[in-house]
Amino acid sequence: MLDKLNINAFISFGLGFILICLSEATETQVNYTAKPRVVLPPNYVKEIRPPSKKGSPVIVDFSIFVVDINSINVEDMDFRVDMFIHQRWHEPRLEIPDDIFEEGDDYVTLLPEVFENFWQPDPYFLNSKIAEIATLTHKFTSVTLYKNKTVRYAARMHAIIACQMEFQLYPMDIQVCPIHIESFSSNNQKVKLRWSDSGVTLNPELKLLQYNLGQPLQLEESDGYMPEKVGNFSRLTVYFRFERQIGHHLIQTFAPSSLVVMLSWFSFWLGLDAIPGRVTLLVTCMLTLVTMFTGADIPPVAYVKALDLWMAGCMLSVFAALAEFVVVKVLDVQYQYQVNRIPKRISNMEKGQCATVASWEGGAVRSRKATQTPTTPGQTSLQGNGGPPKPARRQSLLSVAWTDTDTGVEKIMWREIDKVSRAVFPILFFVFVLLYWPILLMKSS
Predict the structure, then answer these.
(1) CA distance 226 to 186
(2) What pLDDT was estimated at residue 380?
(3) Using alpha carbons only, how large is the chain's radius of gyration in Å?
(4) What secondary structure does DSSP assign to 142-193, as a single string?
C-alpha cells in the first residue's frame, strides 16, 4: 500500500515538473518573439550609414528648444544651457510591420534597447566644456519611428558652453556666444547636418538676470576643416547675443559716484577757517569712491574697461578738489605771512629815518619832509621827494593779493581760486559726462 502511494506521488511530482518547464519555455518563446517588434534585415550593419544617392551624404535635420540659460560666468567665460535637442534622418533599410502602429497613428516610440541596434549620427558640441544627457531614474531620451521610415531622436540635456567674451565696453558690453555643433567621425561627404524648419526656439518664459537675449537668433550652416581629424566636417552654429542690462549699474555705481563727486564741490564754499571739515569732506569722498569701485562686480581683465574710465574721471575730479584745497591753503599762508611782515618793516624803517633830511645845495640848507605815497590797502610805500618807488619790498605780496582798479577792493588769490572752482569743476565734470555717455552708447550699438 505504501509503495503504491509513493509511486503515485512520484508520478504526480514528475508531471508537475514537466508542466512547469513547458510553461516557462512557452513564456520564454513568447517574450523572445514579441521583443523585436521592429524587424531589421539580416544584412543590417549599424556601423554603415543609410544608403543614399551616389555621392550625396545622409541629411540629418537638427533642432534645439532652449529651456533655460543660466550661470553666465564672466570669470570662466562660459554659460550653461538646458535644452531639448532633436535629430531626424531617413533610414530606408528598416522593415516596419503595420501592426506595431496604433490605430490612427503613423509613428511608434521605440525602446532604447532597440534603438541601440540602429545606425546613429554622432554630433557633438564643439565648444562645450561639459555636455550631458539629463537623468533621473534613466536618461531622458526617446526614439520615434514613422511609417515613412524616418527616425526621430530627442533628448533633454545640459551643456556648459565656452564663450570668448570681450569687456572693453563693460557695463554696456554685448557678448555674442556661439554654439558649434559638428559631426564627430563622419565627414561632410557622408553626413550633412542642417537646421530643421523650427531651427532654434526659446522658451517664452525665459528671463535672464542681468542680460537681454537678442532675437532673432542667427543660424549658420557651414563646413569646417578640422586638422585634428584631417577633413571637412558639417557644422551648425547658433549665435546667442547677450546684451547686459545697464539699470543695475546705474543704480549701484554711476548714480552714487556722481553724487559723491557733486558732494566734493561743497568744499569750495567752505572757508579756510573750516579746515577740518573741508579736509574730512574731501578725504571721505575719495575713500567712498575707492570703496565703491573696489567692491563692484568688475570682470578681472587686464585691459581698460568703460567703467574704469568712469571711475578714473570721478576719482580725478575729487583728487583735483583736494589738490585745489592744498593750493589755496598755501596761498593763504603766504598772504598772512606777507600781511603780518610788511607793517613791521615799515615801522622799523620809520623809526630809523629822520623826520627831515638836510641837503646842502650851494651853501644853503633846505629842509624836506619825507613823503608817504599810499598804495594798496595794507601796504605803504616810502618815497623821498622825487625818489623812485621800491617795489621789491612788496613783490611777494602782489602775487597773492591785488587791488581791483575799478572798485578799489582788495582781491585775495585763494578766495578768487575758490570762486572760480565753484564753476569750473562742475563744468568740467559735465563735459566729461557729455563725452562719456554718447561715445559709449555709440560704440555699444
Answers:
(1) 12
(2) 42
(3) 46
(4) EEEEETTSEEEEEEEEEEEEE-----TTTTS-EEEEEEEEEESSS-TTTEEE
* CB of 156 closer than 8 Å to CB of 120: no
Q: What is the pLDDT of residue 364?
A: 43
Q: What is the 3-state secondary structure (H, E, C) of 229-293?
A: CCEEEEEEEEEEEEEECCHHHHHHHHHHHHHHHHHHHHHHHCCHHHHHHHHHHHHHHHHHHHHHH
Cell numbers 525602446: residue:
111
CA separation for the pair 379, 341 (Å, rounded): 11
Helix (H/G/I), strand (E/B), else coil: 51: coil
Closest C-alpha to 262, from 252, 254, 272: 254
| Rounded-to-integer distance, Cα 270 and Cα 263, Å | 12
Residue type, 369: K
Question: Virtual CA dihedral for 315, 321, 325, 330, nearest 10 degrees?
Answer: 80
Run of H or E including 219: strand 211-226
CA quadruple 104, 107, 108, 109: dihedral sign = negative
Residues 6 or more apart in contact with residue 159 via CB below 8 angstroms:
80, 81, 83, 125, 128, 130, 131, 132, 179
Helix, strand or coil, per DSSP, at residue 419:
helix
Compute the distance between CA of residue 144 and CA of residue 151 in angstroms, rounded to an integer.
6
- pLDDT at 262 (0 to 100): 96
**ω before 171 within 30° of 0 (cis)?**
yes
Question: How many other CB atoms sit within 10 Å of the CB of residue 280?
Answer: 12
Between 327 and 339, name the one with better pLDDT.
Answer: 327
CB-CB contact of 234 with 225 (8 Å): no
Q: Which pLDDT score, from 0 to 100, does residue 168 have? A: 93
pLDDT per position as a tens digit, 159-193? 999 999 999 999 999 999 999 999 998 899 999 99
The terminus-to-terminus CA distance of the chain in angstroms comes to: 108
Longest dimension (CA), the chain: 192
| Spatial distance between the Cα atoms of 261 and 307, rounded to a whole number of angstroms | 16
Least confident of 5-14, 19-28, 52-61: 19-28
Does residue 51 have a cis peptide bond before it, meaning omega lies within 30 degrees of 0? no
Neighbouring CB atoms inside 10 A of 104's CB total 5
Q: CB burial class (10 A; 0-12, 13-18, 19+) of residue 37?
A: middle
Q: 100: part of which helix (H) or strand (E)?
A: none
Alpha-carbon distance values, 23 to 10, 26, 52, 390 (Å) = 20, 5, 47, 136
Round to whole Å and give the CA distance between 86 and 64.
6
What one-character DSSP code corresponds to residue 305? -
